[in-house]
Each structure stands twice: as C-alpha cells, then as structure tokens.
User: Fold Major facilitator superfamily (MFS) profile domain-containing protein from Papaver nudicaule.
Amino acid sequence: MNITEDVENCNSGRKESITEPLIKVSNHEEAYHLDNNNSGGSMFMVLLSTFVAICGSFAFGTCVGFSAPTQSGITSDLGLSLSQYSVFGSIGNIGAMVGAITSGKISDYIGRKGAMRMSSIFCIVGWLAVYFSKEVVSLDIGRLCTGYGMGVLSYVVPIFIAEIAPKHLRGGLATLNQLMIVSGVSFTFIIGTIVSWRTLALIGILPCCVLLFGLLVIPESPRWLAKAGLQKEFELSLRKLRGKDADISQETADIQDYLQTLEHLPKAQILDLFQRRYLVSLIVGVGLMVFQQFGGINGICFYVSHIFEAAGFPSALGTVIYACIQVPITGLGAMLMDKAGRRPLLFVSASGLLVGCLLLATSFYMKAHEMFLEAVPTLALTGILTYIGSFSVGMGAVPWVIMSEVFPLNIKGTAGSFVTLVNWFGSWVVSFTFNFLMSWSSYGTFLLYAAVNLLAILFIAKMVPETKGRTLEEIQASMNRS
Assistant:
C-alpha cells in the first residue's frame, strides 16, 4: 500500500513524490542477475535488516492479539462494561487508520527507518499507558497509541523489505511480514493465558525495543535515499546490502532509470481512482478488503476467548489451539501462493470461512434452544478452527497480494492508501460491533458473517482475475482498459 504525497527535497530544492516503493520491474532488471552479490556478508545484512523490520510485524501482531486473552482480566480489574471494553478492543483500529493515512508522508520525510523508529516509540508509550491504567481513559489512550504505531508499521515494514531485498529473494522475504504478524497474534494468545494482562502489556514492549535498537545497525532503504537525492548515502547503503565486492552498477542504473520514469508520471488524486479505466481494479481491490473484514475475522480474533466461554469450551485451551494452527497454515498459504494460484486459494478460503461460520451458528443455536448441549463446545471449537485455518490459507494474505498487482504504477500510491483505509475501517466496524451482535443473537451473528462469506465466493467467481504467472503490465492491460 502506498500513499502519494509531495515532499520538499531539501538537497535539491525541488518537490518530488517519493511514496512509491521503488521496485522496478523492467527488461533491464529481468536481465540483471544477482548471483555475484550473494556473498555471506551481503546476505547477512539483508537477512539482518529483514529480521529487524519484521520485529515491527511481530509487534503489530501483539497489538492485534492483546484484546482476546485479556477481556476477563481487564473488565474485572477495572470494572469495564461491555460497551467500554468494545471501545477499547476496537479503538486501536481508529489509531491504525490514522497511522495508515499518514505513514506514506512520514516515511518519505524521515525515511523508512525513521518511520519504524517513530512507530516503535508510539507502541512503547501505548503499552506503558495500558500497563499503568487505573481507569478506562488511560486504557483507551494506550490502545490508540499502539494502534497508531500498528498502522504505520503495516505500511512501512513491507515497503522496507521490498526495497532492500534482491529480486530473487523478494517474494520469500515479503511473506515473512504476514507470517510474523500471525506469529505475534499467536504468541500473545498463548502467553495471555499464562500471565496477567498488565504483564502481557509489558511483554508487548519487547519486540518494539528490539526494533528500536536494531534500526541502529541496519542501513536505510537505498531506494528511498536515491529518491531523496542522497546519492552518496544511496550508494553506501546499496553496497552494504549487496556486499563490498559486488557489482552494483546495473542495479544502480535500474533504480535511477525508474526514478526518471516516476518523474514523468502524472500525480494521481483520489478522484482519479473512479475513472472508468481504473474502475475494475478499484472494485477488485476494495471488494476483497471489504469481504476480508466483514466476514468477521477481527470479531472472532479480538474476542476468541469470549466466544469459547460463551460456547462452554475452556477458553485458555481453545485460545492456545487457535494460536497454534495459525502460523503453520499461514506458511502453507504462502508456499501455495505462486503454485496453486490466487483464485483457488481464495475459493478454498472463502468456502472454509462459510463452513466455519455455519458450524459456529449451529453450535450457538443448539445452546440457545438446549439441543444436544454436550456437543456444543466441540462443535464451536471445530467451527473456530475451520474458520481461522481457512482465513490463514487465503483471505488473510491474498487480498493484499492482489491489491499490489491490479493497480497501475501511476495510481498505485493513492489506490493503496484508499484500499488500506477501507480495510482498517472494516476492521474497526467489525471489532466494535461484535460484542453487541453477540448480545443480540449469538447464532445470528455467525449467520450474518456466513452470508458475507457466501457473497465473497460469488464476488471472487465473478470479479477477481487470476494473476499468477502474469506480469504486472499484462494484468493491468487486461483490467484497466479505457
């Protein structure tokens, strides 16, 4: 996701748009081989830089996962009502929306490292506010701060990884972002069943500190340095990443050529997205994010322990099982992305989400009408595991991949900003309304999510193209005809 802003270049005195991740896909780059650059030293720096960056993804995951195992502890310790806890659980998404909107401009003014450093500080301050909370206001302020940091990280971490990685490693390293987010969620779920919510807040600070100190030893994105006009620093950073004996002349030339291409592209405004030639791309990108969120993922993820309690299944055990299946299935989905294709993964995923919601609806219907009560906990567990397994294999990551593929270069920044905002807004709506829906009708809630996932299957069949094995230019030429 990219956000296009005009930024003053203090070295050259000219305004430039530098929010696009400078990843060139061209004949030059396809002809460029990095085999000579794969010395141990260069690979070590690329991997170290990636590890430091994905500590931000892990921190992101701990923020997302915090509200699920802590609901009982926080509500009893601070005396929160259902509505107050719903505000706490969802207000992080408000902060994330603001973070996502401002992240492009921030990461352009102060660099990718600067943006990650700033977001880690916001998260640390937020976690401390949560830890020291004695009443609901400071609790919400802390959650809002961590949410803002989460929103910035959701933009800058994948951009940074893409901009530092050699092309033959870019896909594999990029998947680590989603994998570490899920790992952070799972870690928080498991540890949250063992420690108090205040201790869990302190633990959430740890990946932020690793990120903060790790940024001291890794280089800035060479592509951002080039776009900012810092030629000497650009070459030093690229050499540090590729190795002191590597020939970086071709990659340097490719990046400079791409910069010149960007300078001749018109700057896209938000209304440009609604032009007829971009409308199909916009419908696909926004539609997938709407179905991803309104299918219920953040309601289930944020309040999974409450769902288990309501179904009569031990919440601690259920949360641990939930956490343990997320990571391997997300890894499986990443491996299948370029083999099975995007559409098959989406079909399997959305179908599994539908089945999971129907199983949950059935279990709560049986409980409400006192039918086969001994089967209710097992059926609820099966429904939740089916749901989260299905989400992890497809609907979690594939919409982000397709979003990055279907928009042409000249509108990708603005489109990415808009689509990301839609995603965070949907996340907020679902996480805020979930507890109220459950109070209205537990089985009705999951029937509602099931209906959304049924519509998602129809949407994928009708609107979503298969992008596997096609160049970005081929995808955009087929979709964005004027």
The longest strand covers residues 6-8. Confidence is low (pLDDT under 50) at residues 1-41. Residues 47 and 254 are 22 Å apart (CA to CA).
